[in-house]
Amino acid sequence: MTTLTERQRETGMLAEALRALRQRTGLSGKDFAAQLGWHASRVSRIEHGRQIPTASDLHAWSALCQVSRSESAELAGLLRRVEAEHRDWRRRMRQGQNSVQADYNQLVERSATVRHFEIAWVPGLVQTAAYARQVFREQVELHRLEVHDEEAAVQTRLARGRQLYNPAKRFEFLLAEPVLRWRTCPQDVLREQLTALRQILALPNVRFGVLPLDRPIATTPQNGFQIYDAVTVVETFSGEIFFSNGATALYARTLDRLWADALTGADVDALLTASITSLE
């Protein structure tokens, strides 16, 4: 079985390699896409790991970049590994969700700084039991899982939350405002969850903010992501994508830009209070 550490080393390397090859041609992403007859967004998605290229995509990319035989073999190997990682994630999910949560517990334990930007769910580190249970039940239905270990997964996720009280660690949670509004769970579950979020605002090692809907923002929130020291994780419907090095630096810069437009402190408390009141 591929370990979490191995996936961290491997995932993201393909996207970084393809971006470097495109830059070597001197073409912008837009011009490169035009040469291939693609939409520019397709090149961007591949270079940032949001889309896994097909074998034919890789062949076209390599031909335009005039890669050597050895480079072509390396790229093909990277693609096989990325595809294997996604298959491994699906296999792990079929075996239950608790082991996946245990992997994330280890990742948090090894990290000094944990940063979240979420556009759909409250981060797992600060979820209540009822909210987490709703999330895991949704995954069972979505992925047609046969193993029902939701209760074990809830307890493992709650154990991760105890790391919030470790003064040696630093946490950042930035949520897009829809996270507070979308009814992805019963009203009483969401009310309890929002109330719990208010309680972590005073923790000295936690930075908490909300990206508001009712004012201009400089950076479009394209997807949620998590940063564990030098490792970035992007979760999609089909699996987890891990990045490191240059890609993590890009996500860190993006998160800093998002924070510049975020509500914090008393403004966040007021927004949480208003969201809770709307559920009464």
TrEMBL record:
HTH cro/C1-type domain location, by residue?
18-72
Q: Sorted alphabetically, which Pfam families does this protein's record hold? A: DUF5753 (PF19054), HTH_31 (PF13560)
Per the record, the domain of life is Bacteria
Q: Which InterPro entries match?
A: Cro/C1-type_HTH, DUF5753, Lambda_DNA-bd_dom_sf
Cited SMART domains: HTH_XRE
Q: What is this protein called?
A: Scr1 family TA system antitoxin-like transcriptional regulator
